[in-house]
Amino acid sequence: MASSLLALIDDIASILDDVAVLSKVAAQKTAGVLGDDLALNAQQVSGVNPDREIPVVWAVAKGSFINKAILVPSALGISVFAPWAITPLLMVGGAYLCFEGCEKLAHKFLHSKEEDAKHHDELVKALSDPSVDLCALEKDKIKGAVRTDFILSAEIIVISLDTVANATLLTKLGVLVAIAIVMTVGVYGLVAGIVKIDDLGLHLKETSSKLMQRIGNFLLMAAPKLMRLLTIVGTAAMFMVGGGILVHGVAALGHMSEAASAWAGAAPAVGRVLGPVVSTLFSAAVGLVAGALVLLAVTGATRLFKRKA
Fold first, then answer.
1. Is the dihedral of CA 228, 229, 232, 235 positive or negative?
2. Model's pTM, two decimal places?
């Protein structure tokens, strides 16, 4: 019995060690999607009454935990009963990320600043109008953020599952649970911090200390710039991560990426740095092209459906 107990403890220790190592690898692979998740969810909760920002973030975070409570066992079921489906699911998820990135670019270039300003003014007017049901507005924002989270969480879980495809079931469970908890706490902790930066800046600006006032002014100026930076980084991450998934899933693209990386890596002095950069740019280019094709297909199908309706 003692030897069995020691063997059990050793197995548990080995599983925890594998979980720690593989969770780190999975976290690195899903970093791009995480950046996109952070940017999108920070945008989703912007425009909410300042007193309700943290409760809204908490509500979305709870929805995120529910999403992952559904996704983790589903992913484990796929790994046990249909492991062949992991790569196709990754490809679908990668194509969706590329599509979403192209959709954001298309919105930016096809919609004028006047249209965006009008939408912003309508939102501000709704927030200040006592006849508007702010609870309903909050619920709509929460539902939208939770839907976005579900899609990105699914991508993170599938990428993590692919990372530990050859591990034991317990190790897979440990990695997926660890990734789900760390990603959710990390993303929504940062989102909560980002949406309250301007409030912190305003608070510091009202203090008697000149140093604190300067810091407050800096935070007030930095908050909108940080949001715009997150948007840019998130969009770039969509193409790099989504395109990278497609490159690894299509053999021909994978060979092209390896050849381009090897060619750039052979450059004297800068080859060690240039190789990975070229590989990343190749993935981003593939993601951009794939996203544009999916966007054209979706737009065409939507218009055709509307005509028939």
1. negative
2. 0.67
